[in-house]
Design brief:
19% of the residues are buried. This protein has 118 residues and is an alpha+beta fold. The protein contains three helices and five strands.
């Protein structure tokens, strides 16, 4: 099995439990990996035979748009469910990181894996 990856996708999101986090967007960084079988598209040269990573990024942006997530765990779960459900992949790994959320900490976050990696 092969892996498509999207690395260091930086987005603004309303995320956190504190009152100010409901009002002030924070920069988050996402890393996404999806299991694919690249054999078919490697032979055909057609994007229809693989996962369109540009479409994955669009759907991630749409999922975040205008919403507040209290926890990065909730955001990661929702993104994983969306990717598994919409992109015909059996497995996904997602890392969600808040950048500079705590003094002296470059980034903090969570990595989840959902589905079964073939």
């Amino acid at each position: 099995m092969d892996t498509i990856f999207i690395s260091e996708l930086k987005l603004e999101a309303l995320i956190g439990v504190y009152a100010w986090e409901h009002e002030v967007a924070q920069t988050i960084q996402l890393d996404v990996e999806l299991a694919v079988d690249a054999t078919r598209c490697a032979h055909s040269g057609r994007i229809a035979d693989t996962v369109d990573y540009a479409r994955v990024v669009i759907r991630i942006r749409e999922t975040l748009a205008g919403r507040h997530f209290t926890l990065i765990e909730k955001l990661a779960e929702e993104l994983a469910a969306m990717i598994l459900g919409e992109f015909d992949t059996p497995w996904v790994r997602i890392t969600v990181a808040k950048l500079a959320a705590l003094r002296g900490v470059k980034k903090l976050g969570l990595t989840i894996e959902r589905g079964v990696r073939p």
